[in-house]
Amino acid sequence: MNTSTDEHFLREAIRLSRHHMLAGEGGPFGALVVRGDQIIAQGWNRVTSTNDPTAHAEVVAIRDACAKLNTFRLDGCVLYASCEPCPMCLAATYWSRVDRLIFAASRSDAAAAGFDDEWLYQELPRLHTERKMPTAQAMQAEAQAVFQEWLAKADRIAY
Amino acid sequence: MNTSTDEHFLREAIRLSRHHMLAGEGGPFGALVVRGDQIIAQGWNRVTSTNDPTAHAEVVAIRDACAKLNTFRLDGCVLYASCEPCPMCLAATYWSRVDRLIFAASRSDAAAAGFDDEWLYQELPRLHTERKMPTAQAMQAEAQAVFQEWLAKADRIAY
Q1: What is the 3-state secondary structure (H, E, C) of chain B?
Q2: Which ipTM was obtained for this model?
Protein backbone atom coordinates (compact mmCIF):
# COMPACT_ATOMS: atom_id res chain seq x y z
CA MET A 1 0.00 0.00 0.00
CA ASN A 2 1.24 3.44 -1.05
CA THR A 3 0.15 5.04 2.19
CA SER A 4 -0.34 8.74 1.52
CA THR A 5 -1.85 8.38 -1.95
CA ASP A 6 -4.01 5.42 -0.99
CA GLU A 7 -5.28 7.16 2.14
CA HIS A 8 -6.14 10.25 0.12
CA PHE A 9 -8.36 8.30 -2.25
CA LEU A 10 -9.78 6.04 0.44
CA ARG A 11 -10.77 9.13 2.43
CA GLU A 12 -12.61 10.38 -0.65
CA ALA A 13 -14.45 7.05 -1.00
CA ILE A 14 -15.53 7.33 2.65
CA ARG A 15 -16.62 10.93 2.08
CA LEU A 16 -18.79 9.79 -0.83
CA SER A 17 -20.31 7.04 1.31
CA ARG A 18 -21.38 9.54 3.96
CA HIS A 19 -22.54 12.31 1.64
CA HIS A 20 -24.82 10.22 -0.57
CA MET A 21 -26.14 8.11 2.32
CA LEU A 22 -27.13 11.29 4.16
CA ALA A 23 -28.71 12.55 0.92
CA GLY A 24 -30.97 9.50 0.93
CA GLU A 25 -29.61 7.85 -2.19
CA GLY A 26 -28.92 4.43 -0.64
CA GLY A 27 -26.69 2.56 1.79
CA PRO A 28 -23.49 3.99 3.29
CA PHE A 29 -21.01 2.86 0.66
CA GLY A 30 -18.67 4.75 -1.67
CA ALA A 31 -16.03 3.75 -4.21
CA LEU A 32 -13.55 5.24 -6.66
CA VAL A 33 -11.72 3.96 -9.72
CA VAL A 34 -8.35 5.69 -9.92
CA ARG A 35 -5.62 5.55 -12.57
CA GLY A 36 -2.34 7.11 -11.55
CA ASP A 37 -3.29 10.29 -9.69
CA GLN A 38 -6.58 10.70 -11.56
CA ILE A 39 -10.06 9.78 -10.36
CA ILE A 40 -11.67 8.08 -13.35
CA ALA A 41 -15.05 7.38 -11.78
CA GLN A 42 -16.93 7.75 -8.52
CA GLY A 43 -19.62 5.41 -7.24
CA TRP A 44 -21.99 5.28 -4.33
CA ASN A 45 -24.82 3.00 -3.37
CA ARG A 46 -27.97 3.83 -5.31
CA VAL A 47 -29.99 0.64 -4.79
CA THR A 48 -33.07 2.22 -3.29
CA SER A 49 -33.00 5.53 -5.17
CA THR A 50 -32.65 3.96 -8.63
CA ASN A 51 -34.45 0.65 -8.05
CA ASP A 52 -31.37 -1.36 -8.97
CA PRO A 53 -30.20 -4.06 -6.55
CA THR A 54 -26.88 -4.22 -8.42
CA ALA A 55 -26.18 -0.48 -7.97
CA HIS A 56 -23.61 -0.97 -5.22
CA ALA A 57 -20.88 1.65 -5.04
CA GLU A 58 -18.18 -0.55 -6.59
CA VAL A 59 -20.37 -1.73 -9.48
CA VAL A 60 -21.46 1.85 -10.19
CA ALA A 61 -17.85 3.07 -10.20
CA ILE A 62 -16.62 0.19 -12.38
CA ARG A 63 -19.43 0.65 -14.91
CA ASP A 64 -18.83 4.39 -15.11
CA ALA A 65 -15.07 4.01 -15.43
CA CYS A 66 -15.48 1.54 -18.28
CA ALA A 67 -17.96 3.84 -20.01
CA LYS A 68 -15.58 6.78 -19.72
CA LEU A 69 -12.54 4.82 -20.91
CA ASN A 70 -14.45 2.89 -23.61
CA THR A 71 -13.17 -0.47 -22.43
CA PHE A 72 -14.31 -3.53 -20.52
CA ARG A 73 -10.90 -3.86 -18.85
CA LEU A 74 -9.56 -1.54 -16.17
CA ASP A 75 -5.96 -2.73 -16.19
CA GLY A 76 -3.77 -0.08 -14.60
CA CYS A 77 -6.54 1.14 -12.31
CA VAL A 78 -7.08 0.80 -8.54
CA LEU A 79 -10.46 0.38 -6.86
CA TYR A 80 -10.98 2.16 -3.53
CA ALA A 81 -14.02 1.16 -1.50
CA SER A 82 -15.30 2.51 1.81
CA CYS A 83 -16.15 -1.08 2.80
CA GLU A 84 -14.91 -4.52 1.89
CA PRO A 85 -16.80 -5.39 -1.33
CA CYS A 86 -19.67 -7.87 -1.05
CA PRO A 87 -19.25 -11.02 -3.19
CA MET A 88 -21.09 -9.36 -6.11
CA CYS A 89 -18.76 -6.40 -6.03
CA LEU A 90 -15.61 -8.43 -5.38
CA ALA A 91 -16.33 -10.65 -8.39
CA ALA A 92 -17.06 -7.50 -10.42
CA THR A 93 -13.68 -6.19 -9.26
CA TYR A 94 -12.01 -9.31 -10.63
CA TRP A 95 -13.99 -9.22 -13.90
CA SER A 96 -12.97 -5.55 -14.34
CA ARG A 97 -9.28 -6.56 -14.13
CA VAL A 98 -8.26 -3.64 -11.92
CA ASP A 99 -4.73 -3.96 -10.55
CA ARG A 100 -5.47 -3.52 -6.85
CA LEU A 101 -8.23 -3.17 -4.27
CA ILE A 102 -8.09 -0.98 -1.16
CA PHE A 103 -10.96 -0.94 1.33
CA ALA A 104 -11.76 0.53 4.77
CA ALA A 105 -14.59 -1.09 6.79
CA SER A 106 -14.92 -4.89 7.03
CA ARG A 107 -17.74 -7.22 6.06
CA SER A 108 -18.39 -7.65 9.79
CA ASP A 109 -18.88 -3.89 10.15
CA ALA A 110 -21.41 -4.05 7.29
CA ALA A 111 -23.16 -6.96 9.01
CA ALA A 112 -23.41 -4.95 12.24
CA ALA A 113 -25.08 -2.20 10.22
CA GLY A 114 -27.69 -4.65 8.91
CA PHE A 115 -26.26 -5.72 5.55
CA ASP A 116 -26.05 -9.28 4.16
CA ASP A 117 -22.45 -9.11 2.91
CA GLU A 118 -20.97 -11.42 5.52
CA TRP A 119 -23.83 -13.91 5.24
CA LEU A 120 -23.41 -14.00 1.45
CA TYR A 121 -19.73 -14.84 1.90
CA GLN A 122 -20.84 -17.88 3.91
CA GLU A 123 -23.68 -18.80 1.55
CA LEU A 124 -22.03 -18.66 -1.89
CA PRO A 125 -19.40 -21.40 -1.40
CA ARG A 126 -22.10 -23.94 -0.47
CA LEU A 127 -23.34 -26.53 -2.94
CA HIS A 128 -26.39 -25.14 -4.71
CA THR A 129 -28.46 -27.91 -3.19
CA GLU A 130 -27.52 -26.67 0.27
CA ARG A 131 -28.12 -22.94 -0.16
CA LYS A 132 -31.04 -20.99 1.24
CA MET A 133 -32.03 -19.91 -2.30
CA PRO A 134 -34.09 -22.77 -3.80
CA THR A 135 -32.04 -23.81 -6.83
CA ALA A 136 -32.30 -26.52 -9.48
CA GLN A 137 -30.30 -27.55 -12.53
CA ALA A 138 -31.71 -28.98 -15.79
CA MET A 139 -30.98 -29.22 -19.52
CA GLN A 140 -27.22 -29.12 -19.02
CA ALA A 141 -26.45 -30.82 -22.34
CA GLU A 142 -28.44 -28.23 -24.31
CA ALA A 143 -26.45 -25.41 -22.72
CA GLN A 144 -23.13 -27.22 -23.12
CA ALA A 145 -23.79 -27.29 -26.87
CA VAL A 146 -23.81 -23.47 -26.91
CA PHE A 147 -20.40 -23.40 -25.23
CA GLN A 148 -19.09 -25.66 -28.00
CA GLU A 149 -20.41 -23.18 -30.56
CA TRP A 150 -18.66 -20.39 -28.66
CA LEU A 151 -15.34 -22.25 -28.79
CA ALA A 152 -15.85 -22.81 -32.51
CA LYS A 153 -16.57 -19.12 -33.14
CA ALA A 154 -13.47 -17.79 -34.87
CA ASP A 155 -14.08 -14.11 -34.03
CA ARG A 156 -15.02 -14.52 -30.38
CA ILE A 157 -13.74 -11.78 -28.06
CA ALA A 158 -12.44 -13.08 -24.73
CA TYR A 159 -13.09 -11.06 -21.56
CA MET B 1 -38.75 -27.85 -9.92
CA ASN B 2 -41.99 -27.43 -11.91
CA THR B 3 -40.67 -29.42 -14.83
CA SER B 4 -42.63 -28.37 -17.91
CA THR B 5 -42.86 -24.67 -17.05
CA ASP B 6 -39.28 -24.48 -15.86
CA GLU B 7 -37.96 -26.29 -18.94
CA HIS B 8 -39.91 -23.93 -21.17
CA PHE B 9 -38.27 -20.85 -19.69
CA LEU B 10 -34.86 -22.46 -19.34
CA ARG B 11 -34.97 -23.39 -23.04
CA GLU B 12 -35.68 -19.73 -23.82
CA ALA B 13 -32.69 -18.63 -21.71
CA ILE B 14 -30.50 -21.06 -23.67
CA ARG B 15 -31.93 -19.76 -26.94
CA LEU B 16 -31.01 -16.22 -25.92
CA SER B 17 -27.48 -17.35 -25.01
CA ARG B 18 -26.95 -18.82 -28.48
CA HIS B 19 -28.64 -16.07 -30.48
CA HIS B 20 -26.82 -13.11 -28.96
CA MET B 21 -23.48 -14.91 -28.78
CA LEU B 22 -23.70 -15.70 -32.49
CA ALA B 23 -24.68 -12.06 -33.11
CA GLY B 24 -21.36 -11.02 -31.54
CA GLU B 25 -22.78 -9.27 -28.49
CA GLY B 26 -20.75 -11.16 -25.89
CA GLY B 27 -20.26 -14.51 -24.20
CA PRO B 28 -22.70 -17.44 -24.54
CA PHE B 29 -24.97 -16.66 -21.60
CA GLY B 30 -28.70 -15.90 -21.37
CA ALA B 31 -31.13 -15.30 -18.53
CA LEU B 32 -34.78 -14.52 -17.85
CA VAL B 33 -36.71 -13.04 -14.94
CA VAL B 34 -40.17 -14.64 -14.86
CA ARG B 35 -43.18 -13.92 -12.67
CA GLY B 36 -45.95 -16.48 -12.89
CA ASP B 37 -46.19 -17.31 -16.60
CA GLN B 38 -44.89 -13.93 -17.73
CA ILE B 39 -41.37 -13.07 -18.86
CA ILE B 40 -40.59 -9.78 -17.11
CA ALA B 41 -37.08 -9.30 -18.52
CA GLN B 42 -34.52 -10.96 -20.77
CA GLY B 43 -30.77 -10.68 -20.41
CA TRP B 44 -27.76 -11.82 -22.34
CA ASN B 45 -24.06 -11.22 -21.98
CA ARG B 46 -23.09 -7.81 -23.35
CA VAL B 47 -19.67 -7.34 -21.74
CA THR B 48 -17.67 -6.80 -24.90
CA SER B 49 -20.35 -5.06 -26.99
CA THR B 50 -21.23 -2.48 -24.33
CA ASN B 51 -17.86 -2.17 -22.54
CA ASP B 52 -19.36 -3.21 -19.24
CA PRO B 53 -17.69 -6.05 -17.31
CA THR B 54 -20.79 -6.32 -15.10
CA ALA B 55 -23.15 -6.86 -18.06
CA HIS B 56 -23.55 -10.57 -17.49
CA ALA B 57 -26.86 -12.07 -18.57
CA GLU B 58 -28.26 -12.39 -15.04
CA VAL B 59 -27.28 -8.85 -14.00
CA VAL B 60 -28.77 -7.43 -17.22
CA ALA B 61 -32.03 -9.34 -16.67
CA ILE B 62 -32.27 -8.36 -12.99
CA ARG B 63 -31.60 -4.68 -13.70
CA ASP B 64 -34.16 -4.62 -16.50
CA ALA B 65 -36.80 -6.45 -14.45
CA CYS B 66 -36.37 -3.99 -11.59
CA ALA B 67 -36.59 -1.04 -13.98
CA LYS B 68 -39.79 -2.41 -15.50
CA LEU B 69 -41.40 -3.21 -12.15
CA ASN B 70 -40.14 -0.03 -10.44
CA THR B 71 -38.70 -1.92 -7.50
CA PHE B 72 -35.39 -3.07 -6.07
CA ARG B 73 -36.94 -6.34 -4.91
CA LEU B 74 -38.02 -9.19 -7.20
CA ASP B 75 -39.95 -11.22 -4.64
CA GLY B 76 -42.30 -13.59 -6.47
CA CYS B 77 -40.00 -13.90 -9.48
CA VAL B 78 -37.81 -16.77 -10.72
CA LEU B 79 -34.42 -16.33 -12.39
CA TYR B 80 -33.60 -18.72 -15.26
CA ALA B 81 -29.98 -18.81 -16.43
CA SER B 82 -28.39 -20.78 -19.25
CA CYS B 83 -25.38 -21.38 -16.98
CA GLU B 84 -24.78 -21.49 -13.25
CA PRO B 85 -24.33 -17.84 -12.23
CA CYS B 86 -20.80 -16.64 -11.48
CA PRO B 87 -20.29 -15.28 -7.94
CA MET B 88 -21.13 -11.73 -9.10
CA CYS B 89 -24.40 -12.90 -10.61
CA LEU B 90 -25.25 -15.29 -7.78
CA ALA B 91 -24.82 -12.53 -5.20
CA ALA B 92 -26.90 -10.23 -7.45
CA THR B 93 -29.54 -12.98 -7.48
CA TYR B 94 -29.63 -12.94 -3.69
CA TRP B 95 -29.66 -9.12 -3.50
CA SER B 96 -32.59 -9.09 -5.96
CA ARG B 97 -34.58 -11.34 -3.59
CA VAL B 98 -35.98 -13.58 -6.35
CA ASP B 99 -37.75 -16.68 -5.03
CA ARG B 100 -35.87 -19.35 -6.99
CA LEU B 101 -32.96 -19.95 -9.37
CA ILE B 102 -32.92 -22.49 -12.22
CA PHE B 103 -29.80 -22.97 -14.34
CA ALA B 104 -28.56 -25.32 -17.09
CA ALA B 105 -24.77 -25.57 -17.66
CA SER B 106 -22.35 -25.82 -14.72
CA ARG B 107 -19.46 -23.59 -13.66
CA SER B 108 -17.17 -26.38 -14.88
CA ASP B 109 -18.72 -26.17 -18.35
CA ALA B 110 -18.04 -22.42 -18.31
CA ALA B 111 -14.45 -23.07 -17.23
CA ALA B 112 -14.00 -25.50 -20.14
CA ALA B 113 -15.19 -22.71 -22.43
CA GLY B 114 -12.53 -20.35 -21.09
CA PHE B 115 -14.39 -18.40 -18.41
CA ASP B 116 -13.20 -17.59 -14.88
CA ASP B 117 -16.42 -18.49 -13.03
CA GLU B 118 -15.08 -21.64 -11.37
CA TRP B 119 -11.78 -20.00 -10.44
CA LEU B 120 -13.67 -17.07 -8.86
CA TYR B 121 -15.65 -19.53 -6.72
CA GLN B 122 -12.32 -20.77 -5.38
CA GLU B 123 -10.81 -17.30 -5.02
CA LEU B 124 -13.54 -15.34 -3.24
CA PRO B 125 -13.70 -17.36 0.00
CA ARG B 126 -9.97 -16.83 0.64
CA LEU B 127 -8.75 -14.23 3.13
CA HIS B 128 -8.08 -11.00 1.27
CA THR B 129 -4.41 -11.31 2.17
CA GLU B 130 -4.28 -14.64 0.33
CA ARG B 131 -6.09 -13.70 -2.88
CA LYS B 132 -4.47 -13.14 -6.25
CA MET B 133 -5.86 -9.58 -6.34
CA PRO B 134 -3.47 -7.38 -4.33
CA THR B 135 -5.67 -6.04 -1.53
CA ALA B 136 -5.15 -3.86 1.52
CA GLN B 137 -7.32 -2.47 4.30
CA ALA B 138 -6.92 0.93 6.00
CA MET B 139 -8.94 3.62 7.82
CA GLN B 140 -11.44 1.14 9.18
CA ALA B 141 -12.52 3.39 12.07
CA GLU B 142 -13.34 6.29 9.74
CA ALA B 143 -15.65 4.06 7.70
CA GLN B 144 -17.21 2.45 10.76
CA ALA B 145 -18.31 5.93 11.83
CA VAL B 146 -20.41 6.22 8.65
CA PHE B 147 -22.17 2.95 9.49
CA GLN B 148 -23.04 4.42 12.89
CA GLU B 149 -24.58 7.43 11.13
CA TRP B 150 -26.54 5.03 8.91
CA LEU B 151 -27.95 3.21 11.93
CA ALA B 152 -28.88 6.56 13.48
CA LYS B 153 -30.67 7.72 10.29
CA ALA B 154 -34.37 7.52 11.13
CA ASP B 155 -35.57 7.39 7.50
CA ARG B 156 -33.10 4.84 6.17
CA ILE B 157 -34.53 2.38 3.63
CA ALA B 158 -33.28 -1.20 4.12
CA TYR B 159 -32.56 -3.35 1.06
Answers
A1: CCHHHHHHHHHHHHHHHHHHHHCCCCCCCEEEEEECCEEEEEEECCHHHHCCCCCCHHHHHHHHHHHHHCCCCCCCEEEEEEECCCHHHHHHHHHHCCCEEEEEECHHHHHHCCCCHHHHHHHCCCCHHHCCCCEEECCHHHHHHHHHHHHCCCCCCCC
A2: 0.96
Catalytic residue list contains B58 = yes
Inter-chain CB proximity A10 and B103 less than 8 Å: no
Binary contact (A87, B84; C-beta < 8 A):
no
CB within 8 Å: B146 and A99: no
Distance from CA of A98 to the nearest CA of B (A): 8
Q: For residue A91, give the nearest of B18, B124, B138 by CB distance.
A: B124
One digit per residue, the tens of pLDDT, for chain A of length 159 reads 668 899 999 999 999 999 999 999 999 999 999 999 999 999 999 999 999 999 999 999 999 999 999 999 999 999 999 999 999 999 999 999 999 999 999 999 999 999 999 999 999 999 999 999 999 999 999 999 999 999 999 999 999
What residue of B is the nearest CA neighbor of A122? B125
